[in-house]
């Protein structure tokens, strides 16, 4: 009989991209440019139509946007809209009550702020906004214009379908942003952001952070939601209101700057700096690199919530508040805590594992602690997570928005993120593309990765993924149980249908067990969660019983009346608040040795969407397991 070892110990803790036919390209060959918003709305559709090979148009939501108020700088090589990669385009909006005689003056100001090299490095856009009424300054009309601009920039994938076909809106790619969206307010622009934007949850709930210089705020104004804020020469009212909403009462003092933070959720921060003769660009640079890039926003609430009933209520991602979470920003291919991100495009390694009609997996990303690359990490000291992206996602964007990049930096974990979808036009998810051969391709990829990096631990290889990637994680547990120490399928889109275990794969489980934690949420779709009945979806029920059998734990006779949501009596139940926003409950089942082997984690009221807390949720399960790579014995570390 198989045995699980209960161990009484504690664990310690770019290559250049070459575009080729049929290979995923993360960036599009757009050149950098600076222009008025009016020019951007003309030029953007023309440029993108030529590059992307489909029809683009300007988003009509800005047809009556006030002319002569706004300029756009976009970097070269914007992230592609062929996947959700363009959620990684950084968007910095600058509000100032300065006036500019022409485009040259406006560009000189953006350059003076030091934003050109920042956004060129980050990839994305800077949008410079001035008041509609130059004499009166910012007011209610500007707030209405902000709302329209926000709806357009966040409308990723938006477009219209006509009699002759579909047309995509260009604005959201050409100068838009979603996950990395930050505001800078200077003088009257800072007061505007305080009184008009911070007071509206629909607005401030989509902002990853703000830099406010010389800000003031009406005492009657209330900040509507969480937002990190970096204050320079701002009055006490501004500080107190942002400190209160963030619960930022712990403090850290460095030369010339005090950062107040929430002890339980440190991303909720308020930095306070006083002017000491530094140039504006010095504050912008410090605020961006030391403060703004530490936070991101993910749109995880159910679509349509907390959105005014306007013409834009149906726009993509027009919901709030987005989740505010930590970000481990990749800057020039490496994070601040030393996770190096390398893109590989290889036409040889996996070419012998083909799907029909001849596709194979040839793009993947290796996110490695620096000590793995420089040889200072001990042999077999670094665990590995295989992160599988969802349908339509980019591998790096998925790892980032699942919080796995942040986790990798904190825990010193290597992350392998393969590109698993087809890059051949017209080939869908369920067609015989690269996704269908991952059960054979990823083990071979991992064999090569382990040989290349001796620091990686073959006894601690884990897999997770979201939606389509959740199904991929489940398939790896089915096809490679000797390789995987634990798996966390998240919102797994399907179980049977894409992969059905062979007799040989089933026979392997006579000698090996695999612990799994299935995660789902209220609006994940019927395969994972049946929202109408409020119970586990049919595919999840089937998958859990499949592994109950594999792990010699019998079978569950589901009784949802006696045991709501999961339908079984758990050996352990844990409830907590996910990111202080959503109630999460986990039900665990133990094997006869008392080792937790199967579990379900359910988050109430959460949409089918990537959430940055999911990575930590998965790690807190996976990290307790390792596997002897010689004989397959599973080791459990309480």
Description:
It is a single chain. This protein is an alpha/beta fold and 638 residues long. 25% of the residues lie in helices and 26% in strands. The protein has 17 helices and 32 strands. The strands form 7 sheets. It has a 10-stranded mixed sheet, with helices on both faces. Strands 19-20-22-21-23-24-25-30-29-28 form a 10-stranded mixed sheet, sandwiched between helices. The longest helix is centred in the N-terminal third of the chain and has 16 residues, at 37-52. The two termini are 22 Å apart.
Topology:
Blueprint (H helix, E strand, L loop, with lengths): L3 E3 L26 E4 H16 L3 E2 L12 E5 L15 E7 L6 H10 L2 H8 L1 E6 L10 H14 L5 E4 L2 E5 L1 H4 L6 E6 L1 H10 L3 H4 L4 E5 L15 E4 L3 H11 L3 E5 L2 E5 L7 E5 L6 H11 L4 E4 L24 E4 L3 E2 L2 E2 L3 E7 L17 E7 H4 L8 E7 L6 H7 L2 H8 L2 E5 L19 H15 L3 E11 L1 H12 L6 E5 L12 H6 L7 E8 L5 E2 L4 E2 L1 H13 L21 E7 L3 E9 L5 E12 L6 H9 L2 E3 L6 E3 L2
Parallel strand pairs: 1-32, 3-8, 5-6, 5-9, 9-10, 10-11, 11-14, 21-22, 21-23, 23-24, 24-25, 25-30
Antiparallel strand pairs: 2-4, 4-6, 7-8, 12-13, 13-14, 15-16, 17-18, 19-20, 20-22, 26-27, 28-29, 29-30, 31-32
């Amino acid at each position: 009989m198989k045995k699980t070892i209960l161990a009484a110990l504690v664990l310690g803790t770019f290559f250049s991209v070459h575009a080729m036919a049929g290979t995923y390209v993360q960036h599009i060959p757009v050149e950098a440019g600076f222009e008025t918003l009016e020019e951007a709305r003309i030029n953007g559709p023309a440029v993108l139509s030529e590059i992307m090979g489909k029809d683009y148009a300007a988003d009509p939501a800005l047809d009556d946007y006030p002319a002569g108020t706004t300029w756009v700088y976009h970097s070269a090589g914007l992230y592609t809209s062929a996947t959700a990669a363009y959620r990684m385009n950084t968007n910095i909006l600058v509000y100032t009550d300065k006036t500019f005689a022409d485009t040259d003056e406006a560009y000189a100001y953006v350059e003076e702020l030091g934003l050109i090299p920042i956004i060129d490095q980050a990839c994305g856009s800077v949008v410079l906004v001035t008041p509609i009424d130059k004499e009166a300054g910012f007011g209610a009309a500007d707030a209405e214009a902000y709302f329209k601009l926000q709806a357009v920039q966040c409308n990723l994938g938006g477009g219209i379908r006509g009699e002759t076909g579909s047309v995509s809106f260009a604005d959201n790619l050409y100068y838009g942003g979603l996950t990395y969206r930050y505001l800078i307010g200077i003088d009257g622009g800072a007061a505007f952001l305080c009184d008009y934007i911070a007071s509206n949850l629909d607005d401030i709930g989509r902002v990853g952070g703000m830099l406010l210089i010389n800000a003031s705020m009406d005492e009657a104004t209330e900040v509507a939601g969480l937002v990190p804020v970096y204050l320079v020469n701002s009055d006490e009212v501004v500080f107190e209101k942002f400190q209160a909403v963030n619960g930022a009462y712990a403090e850290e003092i460095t030369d010339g700057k005090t950062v107040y933070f929430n002890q339980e959720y440190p991303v909720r921060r308020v930095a306070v700096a006083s002017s000491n003769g530094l140039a504006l660009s010095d504050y912008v640079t410090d605020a961006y690199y030391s403060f703004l890039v530490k936070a991101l926003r993910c749109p995880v609430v159910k679509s349509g919530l907390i959105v005014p009933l306007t013409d834009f209520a149906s726009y993509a991602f027009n919901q709030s508040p987005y989740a505010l979470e930590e970000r481990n920003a990749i800057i020039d291919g490496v994070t601040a805590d030393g996770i190096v991100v390398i893109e590989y495009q290889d036409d040889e390694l996996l070419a012998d594992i083909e799907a029909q009609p001849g596709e194979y997996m040839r793009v993947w990303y290796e996110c490695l602690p620096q000590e793995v690359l420089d040889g200072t990490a001990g042999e077999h000291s670094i665990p590995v997570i295989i992160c599988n992206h969802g349908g339509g996602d980019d591998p790096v964007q998925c790892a980032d928005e699942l919080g796995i990049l942040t986790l990798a930096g904190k825990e010193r974990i290597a992350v392998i993120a393969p590109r698993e979808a087809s890059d051949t036009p017209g080939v869908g998810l369920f067609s015989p593309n690269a996704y269908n051969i991952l059960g054979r391709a990823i083990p071979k990829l991992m064999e090569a990765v382990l040989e290349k990096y001796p620091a990686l631990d073959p006894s601690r290889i884990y897999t997770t993924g979201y939606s389509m990637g959740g199904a991929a994680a489940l398939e790896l547990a089915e096809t490679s149980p000797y390789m995987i120490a634990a798996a966390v399928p998240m919102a797994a889109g399907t179980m049977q249908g894409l992969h059905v275990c062979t007799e040989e794969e089933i026979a392997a489980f006579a000698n090996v067990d695999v612990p799994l934690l299935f995660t789902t949420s209220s609006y994940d779709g019927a395969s994972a969660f049946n929202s109408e009945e409020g119970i586990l979806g049919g595919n999840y029920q089937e998958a859990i019983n499949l592994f109950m059998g594999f792990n010699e734990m019998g079978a569950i006779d589901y009784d949802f009346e006696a045991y709501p949501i999961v339908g079984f009596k758990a050996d352990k139940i844990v409830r907590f608040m996910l990111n202080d926003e959503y109630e999460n409950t986990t039900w665990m089942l133990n094997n006869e040795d008392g080792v937790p082997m199967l579990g379900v984690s359910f988050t109430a009221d959460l949409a089918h969407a990537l959430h940055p807390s999911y990575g930590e949720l998965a790690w807190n399960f996976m990290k307790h397991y390792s596997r002897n790579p010689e004989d397959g014995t599973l080791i459990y570390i309480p």
